[in-house]
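Teaching note: in complex prediction, the entire set of molecules is handled at once rather than each chain in isolation. The prompt given to students was simply: 'Predict the structure of this complex.' The entities are:
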Amino acid sequence: MIVAEGKPVEKILEMLAPYKKVLIAGCRGCVTVCLTGGEKEVGILASQIRMARSKDGNPIEILEQTEERQCDAEYNAKFLENVGKVDAIVSLACGIGIQYLGEKYPLTPIYPGVNTLMLGANIDVGRWEERCFACGDCVLDKTGGICPIARCSKSLLNGPCGGSQFGKCEVSAPVKEDIPCGWQLIYDRLSALGQLDKMSEIIPAKNWLRAKGPRTYVREDLTLDRS
Amino acid sequence: MTKQITNIRIGIYLCDCDGKVSKKVDLNSVKVAIQSKAEFEYIRAVEVACTKAEREQIVAEIDKYSLNRLLVAGCSDPFIVRQFLQLADDKGINRYNVEFVDLSAAESVGAAVSAVDTALNRLHLRAEVGYEELAVIPDVLVIGAGSEAAAAAKAIAKNQPVVQIDNVGTRVIGLDGFPGAFTVILLENGQTVKKDFGAIVLALGAVPQYDKSKYGGVELGADVLSLSQFINAGKDYAGKKVGFALGKADEDSLLSFAAVLKAALDLKEKGASEVSIIYEDMKICADGLEQEYERARKKGVNFLKYTGEFQITRFASGIAFMYREPFLADPAKIVADYIVLAEDFVPAAGTLELAEIFDIRTGPGGFFQKDNVHSLPIRSNRAGIFFVGSCHGPIHGTDLYNEIEAVLAEVSAFAKGKVSVPSLQPKVEAEKCAVCLTCYRCCPHHAIEIVHGEEYNNMYFSAARMNPLACQRCGVCAAECPGKAIQLPLYSDQEILFEVQQPARIVAYACENSGFLASEFAKTLDPELQKDLQIVEVPCSGKIDIIYLLKALENGADGVMLCVCHKENCKFVWGNDRAEQRKVRAQQILNQVGLGERIDFVHVAANQGNQFNTAVKAMAEKIRQSGTNPGKVVK
Ligand code: SF4
Ligand code: SF4
Ligand code: SF4
Ligand code: SF4
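The expected output is the structure of the full assembly:
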């Protein structure tokens, strides 16, 4: 799932400074699941902005609407009526949704209400962890099902580096919270699987071109001729 | 199921309560004002609503005007509440569609009208509450091998089928389903089998464990026995001297004390030459224990009080306790052939595993059950799963029988194979459900499942569903849902936000188990303080959505309070903790945009009216310092 976090509200207030009437657009996909951009957060942000602007003597009118997915044009069509009523849109969808909703309504400025963070798993309520970088050339077969790109701070293909200590990555605190060393995790898993010999196989350099955008994915067998 | 009812016909009765109300407020003016503005079917002012004649007339009016909801404004005497609920039951009006308004506190016609109007709106917004007939499995599973489990199983078996397993030979490895229809997955002779039960009783017991560090490192041996070794050995001690030591281990229960008394009497009967018990504090506060103690004294058992530490020393003539008597200067000594030492009790093997499999909480010492008064005596955080005996902390004698009685009262509800429950569990609007599992994970009572089917109108064809028998109606799920897909009947967002559309200066969201009761008491102590205060009742502080806090402020309140029960004492496990986390975030939201300190979180118990008022004063002072809420949005 895509994981995003709310943008600091002072940034959003700055973006909205010129406007008197805006739409906050939520998404029922990943950002609802990661508790950042569903109907509830739309309501909270709207209330916060209304109060902030009232306080500054510059009241703002805010419409609230949440639809199934902002990364699909058909759902974005449902915002039509409200977009017609406002000067600007704040989207709480991930970066994909924000852009895609913006493309649908190119004459209305759209602003991000979130920072899109990662592809992660929801460990428990209120905690998310990165698992994949979308590198386009998966090596999980060689690494016991644990991603060295996303989970090793240096994305080493042949780790660990010399900084791995007691299972922790050398980039851990005070830089970030304790990070498990990705290559220790790989070693432990391979050893549990009886595949430790894979540790001594050299993984050749990846084709990083596949990780570089702009990327497009087309399946000729599926594309429709709409002419 | 809950359905929005379209044909709402409300009857309003304004009761003067024999002249009490009209001393301050003219009821006819209230009536006229209501008539001019509100929507309802019928209204009448009555002198005393709780007479037989009135009752008959109201019954006739219900028929004549086809009333299906009632609003009774007058005093809030429990008698009139009971009478109208009974009348509603008799007339087939759902009792959840009867609202009461207390006019005895109203100081003006305006105040009375607004109170009636608010209640009237509540009645209009209220979804119809239906009843569900549910089939339940009468069979009860008792887990445990000891005497406690056997006693529980025997008692339950008088009413309904029981299966008892020891959790050793046949072991629980999984649990599905809800009260009335649990599916327990068992490992039986290496095979996985599934069996269905309506309720589960855990009676794993506790096990004694000798801890030498409590006795200065003394190892057990031929003449130094732990209490359980002594009891299990059952040897012949005729002509011998035996000394027992209490108070160093198992300090908090009566179990060891009771066992030692019984053993001492037994020894005396079987001809032991001398029986001594050294103790630090006498623990006989349970039925029958004091009599046992008196009997033991009469039979010549020595009771010797010590203070501080004692030593165990070997002599040629035997083994001895060297101890200090509280009132004597010189150390005292008891020489015996055998000494017996009390042990601690620890949870039986499998306790932790079962807690995990059943998603039930453990508490002090790793025993089952959180240290929370609402769970006493036998409840877990899940409906349909109960504790009996020492598996939730060492207990003794009559306590066990009281617990078994309590369990019987609970499990017998399923004995007939069906139950009828009001459909009051939260309802999920599938179109809004993102199947994010937040509600499932946050429910303190494991009452939620994810169901699949064509009828769930979203891209997953799935939605959360709350089980009517497992759900305890805290509303935590509704307040956590990121999609606003969950509504708790009688406390929907619409109903609650309606109340704070034009809020008082201070809005206090108050849990009906603590803060709300405290506020009722507080009213009588300092009526003056109520002027700027509005209480909004919620079933648990865990229902206080962050949006409730913000909306009250957005609509013009200067301050918001969350009045919750004491820590570790929430009826719904962590409802108050969730509320506190939301308070912290809501205050951050205010700080980010410079709106000042405007939210207070207060722990008050039901009887703490004074503390409630003190908290209200503190809130008033806080908003005096922060000034009028500049974030109020003028519509
Ligand atoms: S190797 Fe690439 S595709 Fe595979 S999990 Fe890691 S980042 Fe994702
Ligand atoms: S310590 Fe481990 S995770 Fe950190 S950079 Fe080195 S190999 Fe990667
Ligand atoms: S919290 Fe809301 S959106 Fe998430 S599963 Fe529950 S009902 Fe669905
Ligand atoms: S109301 Fe409380 S007990 Fe019921 S499903 Fe929601 S969280 Fe669980």
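Point out the following to students. DSSP finds 17 helices and 31 strands in chain B. Chain B has four domains: 1-128, 140-205+348-414, 208-346, 424-486.
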